[in-house]
Structures are given as C-alpha cells and as structure tokens.
Amino acid sequence: MTADRALALLRHAPIFQGAQPADLQPLAELGHFSSLSRGEHLFHAGQAVESLYVVALGSVRVYRLSRGGRRELTLHVEGPRQVVAGVAAFQSRAVYPAQAQALQTPTEVLGLPVDAVRQAVFQTPALAQAVIAYFARRQAELLGRLDSLVFSELGERLAAYLLEHAAAPHALPTNSELAALLGTVPELISRKLGEFYRLGLIVLERRTVQVCDAAELSRLAGGRQEEAGR
C-alpha cells in the first residue's frame, strides 16, 4: 500500500515529470512516509543529507538564519508534490544548507534514500532529463524571488503574495513567518496588512484573509514593472 501511494505521488511530482512509472517503481518501494506537526523540523542546516523529501500533504518552509540567529529569511515554501531542498541530494557528501520545518498540521513527507535516488537518476536518461529540467525551472523561480526581495517594496511583495492565494479564503502564516517569507520584520507586515484592510483591499478575520479588490492589488504588485517601463 505504501509503495502504491508513493508511486502515485512520484508520478505527479514536477521533479520527475515525464518519467515512466517503471523508472519510478524501485524508488517508490524504498520510500517511507513521515508526519510532522506545525513548527516541527524536517532537517537542520549542516545535517548530512540522507533522504530526498517530497511533500505529500501540508507545506514545508525552507529558511536560513542570520549569523546571530535573530532573523530568518524564508527561501521557499514547498507544498504537495514538491521536493524539499532537492539540489543538496545530488551533491557528494552533502549537508543541508538551510532549515526546513512544517508550516501546518498535519504535514506529511515521503522520504527516499538519497543514494538510491542518485543511482536511479544517473543511470536512467528519462529521470535525468526530468530532474535537470526541474532544477532549471527552480533556478529561474529563485532568481525571480531574489529580484523581488532586492528591488521591490514590501507593499508590492505582500500584494503579490495575496494575489497568489486569491482564489479562496487563505489562512495566513503568522506575521513572523510571513515576514521571513517576504524579507522584512513582523511589525511592518502587521502595519501593511492593516493598511490593506482599511483600504478595503482585503477582509481579514482570525488570520484568514480574502481578497476583495484583486485589480488594485494587481496594480500595487506590478508597480515596479510599470515604473521600469516608463
């Protein structure tokens, strides 16, 4: 039963997009599922990489700590079918470069032995092609995030985040988590959310937010691009 469920997850994981079920079956048979509670760590920075993790349920936040440990910067948040810190799994004698913790309860991940993953990918052209294409896409996404953190204002970043979750009422992370994700501090997140609320752009109740004026949020999120085009 575990192998069947693991295979179904791997077949829909973007990192293995285009691979044949027969190529994934040996990995699925070696997989194991683990459950995490909100705030529980999947791994810590500096820990040896022993598994490649694929999120089955919930979400996992990957983040870095400042040297003093007082500030956090969220690098990315991975939801169902996404790989957590996948690049590290393909480095020889690698250690995790960041921390990873569950953002909600329940969160469930599929762990695959990293040595078996490397061997399968290196020896199977279809898997290798899928993994290379996946990492190319992720690099472009991370560069886009870096560009956003460095060159855009907080209002733009927050508006863009809210638009990403505008399809339905969305349970916001804590202000600390949202600040780490958007590269700021909790006090500014609280202030900006309050501003959006007073302007009628969102409805916010008990950490659940609903977008009311997507057009205005879109204008705010696109402000930097509009200015660049002038």
From TrEMBL:
Keywords: DNA-binding, Transcription, Transcription regulation. Gene3D superfamilies: Jelly Rolls, Winged helix-like DNA-binding domain superfamily/Winged helix DNA-binding domain. It comes from the Bacteria. Residues 15-138 form the Cyclic nucleotide-binding domain. The keyword Transcription applies. GO terms for cellular component: cytosol. One of its GO terms (molecular function) is DNA-binding transcription factor activity. Residues 152-215 form the HTH crp-type domain. This is CRP/FNR family transcriptional regulator. PROSITE patterns: CNMP_BINDING_3, HTH_CRP_2. InterPro entries: cNMP-bd_dom, cNMP-bd_dom_sf, Env_Response_Regulators, HTH_CRP, RmlC-like_jellyroll, WH-like_DNA-bd_sf, WH_DNA-bd_sf. The lineage of its organism: Bacteria, Thermotogati, Deinococcota, Deinococci, Deinococcales.
